[in-house]
Amino acid sequence: MAQRLFNVEGVRLACEDVGSGPPIVLLHGFPLDHTMWNAQIDALQSQFRVIAPDLRGFGDSHLADGDAENGVGMERYAADVIALLDWLQISEPVVLAGLSMGGYIGWQAVLRWPERIRGLIPCDTRAAADAEEPRAARFKMAEAAMQAGNSSPALVMIPRLLGAETREQRPEVEVALRAMIERQSAETVAAAQRGMARREDVRGKLDAITADSLCIVGVEDVISPPAEMHEFAQLLAKSGDDDVRIVEIEHAGHMTPMENPAAVTATIAAFARQCYGL
Question: How large is the average pLDDT for residues 202-230?
Answer without folding.
Answer: 95
